Amino acid sequence: MPLVRSAHERGITTLTLDSPANRNALSAGLVGELTDALTRCGEDDSVRAVVLTHTGNTFSAGADLRNPPPPEALVALLRRIVTLDRPVVARITGHVRAGGLGLLGACDIAAASRDASFAFSEVRIGVAPAVISLTVLPRTDPRAVARYYLTGERFDAYEAARIGLLTVCGADVDAALAPVLDGLRRSSAQGLAETKRLLTAKVLEAFDRDATDLSALSARLFSSAQAREGMTAFLERRDPAWVL
Known about the structure:
Low-confidence stretches: none
Oligomer: single chain
Structural class: alpha/beta
Protein name: Enoyl-CoA hydratase family protein
Largest sheet: 6 strands, mixed
Strand content: 15-25%
Distance between the termini: 43 Å
Shape: globular
Mean pLDDT: 97
Number of strands: 10
Strand order of the largest sheet: 1-2-3-5-7-10
Family: Belongs to the enoyl-CoA hydratase/isomerase family.
Helix content: 40-55%
GO molecular function: catalytic activity
């Protein structure tokens, strides 16, 4: 069964993360399928923009702790979103955790329903939001993201919009996105591609400068003793040993 489904209507291709059994966790398989689907969108002249959404109550729970992708594969996926010469729009009607926030940061526009929730939960399993910082840090308020990186606290959609993770949130996410999609359909392919290059130039500088080091940091942390304890505790639904 595919982990990413694709549909097309009036210039908009919708890619749906469809692995609800593990809350659309970023497994090696899902990351590979999504990267390939985005590449196909970039090769299809009928695609004016891409909407990235999900089945189930979670956009993405972050890395699949049982079958995680290599850090380099996650870097490649995030870079594929950033460099795609079509706008990528996140549509969220559920929760987003850890690595899922890296996808959100890579998208050009992001909308969520007001009952969505967000958390950088890496510190609570003994790792750090390393690779996803490539897309999150350029988009977000530094003081706010310091708090949420360091504490792993959960925050709501209104706070996510305030700190720059979301473009818009509301009771009806599709109503909030309707003028966005209409605007994209009225825009030329060339205009969208060149405008996106202007908007993503600084983000790509971060990839070129930091991606290798952040991938190495992620690999080192995930192989550490504290991460093994944190991931085991998470899977066993208990507190890790360091909780005071």
